[in-house]
Write a structure and sequence with these properties.
By secondary structure, this protein is an alpha/beta fold. 45% of the residues lie in helices and 17% in strands. Bound molecules: uridine-diphosphate-N-acetylglucosamine and 5-amino-5-deoxy-1-O-phosphono-D-mannitol.
Length: 365
């Protein structure tokens, strides 16, 4: 079943041009998006006072990547909940809320308990899942199957990118009554249709990521700084590295750098800074300068052709990725980090598809 690949994680990373295509198949139209499962609920979602995204691990990170465009395209405030934390706090959920549950398996215990809780509180419950017939799919009022195909590696890769794309389509559908964002929506739809070929392009970085991994095998820790659309990329890149390569890694909001993390910076600690083109670009340029002035060991992810713009001194290692619609950039930016985590794991001699102590589906609390 792995075909020409050594591991499922590797196969699933390389499958993304295809899985992104199947996620969008039949749903993307020139005039907008068509999500069969949501047709009857779109108006209710539009009227909701708040959207609450709920998930665990990678699925939470996918929702975090979706938050900025969900807010932008719908104007509805979006809050984020890690399922276990919502349950621990018994946080407020109201009838006027739309609660969006994100889960690859559709069987994660905390996510399902949070779903029961939101149902009891009268919220409209929407599922985003890869598993037709899963408990999540059955118990939610409506939802979107991401159709990424079966994911076997414990580390979620293709489901993450398909979840973001499914939520982009959700945001486009909910926001489709807003005239002021029509041009923006059209640009995002066109960006979505190019994503599979952008994903093929970025996968060509495989050998470069293997080389980068070999320079990091003995590191004890790896920091990843992102902000805006790519805060989620930082968290998800770090989660992949810690979960499979068994290396400490921390994703951080670059805007928080001076509020603590800067104290860690020295010439040894590798730091990945995500600085692709978007409204936060100049802020990331200044973060890079500040890290370099503390002799930070930087690996900068930037848009193609931007190497000298992000690192004029030439003292950083640069990963250049294809430029896509700013809000969709997280779909492309995570791919080199998935490849990095994969190669780091193989080079460090750990089990890629079955990391120590972890299960694919966490069905107990
Ligand atoms: C559906 C069919 C698809 C077919 C297409 C043709 C299924 C599973 N999907 O896809 O095979 O090609 O019509 O038009 O038969 N749902 C939830 N919670 C979730 C996920 C989904 O309640 O977490 C519900 C949806 O609201 C919907 C149903 O499940 O009622 C199917 O969802 P989805 O597969 O996303 O719908 P379509 O894309 O229309
Ligand atoms: O099946 P789910 O999406 O609900 O799973 C949630 C998490 O357990 C899962 O994403 C976990 O963090 C992965 N192993 C990450 O790669």
């Amino acid at each position: 079943k792995k075909g020409s690949y050594d591991h499922f994680m590797q196969k699933e990373i390389h499958e993304q041009p295809h899985s992104l295509t199947t996620t969008m198949r039949g749903r993307l139209k020139d005039s907008g998006v068509l999500l069969g499962g949501l047709k009857e609920h779109i108006k209710t979602i539009r009227r909701s006072r708040r959207v609450v995204f709920i998930g665990c691990g990678t699925s939470y990170n996918a929702a975090l990547a979706a938050r900025p465009f969900m807010e932008e395209l719908t104007g509805i405030p979006v809050t984020m909940e890690v399922a276990s934390d919502l349950l621990d706090r018994q946080g407020p959920i109201y009838r006027e809320d739309t609660a969006v549950f994100v889960s690859q398996s559709g069987e994660t215990a905390d996510t399902l308990l949070a779903l029961d809780y939101a149902l009891e509180n009268g919220a409209l419950c929407v599922g985003i899942t890869n598993t037709v017939g899963s408990t999540l799919s059955r118990r939610t009022h409506c939802g979107v199957h991401i159709n990424a195909g079966c994911e076997i590696g414990v580390a979620s890769t293709k489901a993450y990118t398909s979840q973001i794309v499914a939520m982009a389509m959700l945001a486009l559908a909910v926001g489709s009554d807003q005239i002021s964002t029509q041009a923006r929506r059209e640009a995002i739809i066109s960006g979505l249709s190019s994503l599979p070929s952008n994903a093929s392009e970025v996968l060509k970085l495989d050998a470069e990521m293997k080389e980068l991994a070999s320079s990091l095998i003995d590191s004890e820790s790896l920091l990843v700084f992102g902000r805006g659309y790519n805060y989620a990329t930082a968290l998800e890149g770090a989660l992949k590295v810690k979960e499979v390569a068994l290396m400490h890694s921390e994703g951080m909001l670059a805007g928080e750098m001076k509020h603590g993390p800067l104290a860690l910076v020295d010439e040894n600690l590798p730091i990945i800074v995500i600085a692709t083109r978007d409204a936060c670009f100049s802020k990331q340029q200044s973060v890079i300068q500040q890290l370099l002035s503390r002799k930070g060991r930087l690996i900068v992810m930037c848009s193609e052709g931007d190497a000298s713009a992000v690192c004029p001194s030439g003292s950083c290692r640069v990963i250049e990725v294809p430029d896509v619609a700013d809000c969709l950039q997280p779909v492309i930016n995570i791919i080199p980090l998935q490849l990095l985590a994969y190669h780091l794991t193989v080079l460090r001699g750990f089990d890629v598809d079955q990391p120590r102590n972890l299960a694919k589906s966490v069905t107990t609390q």
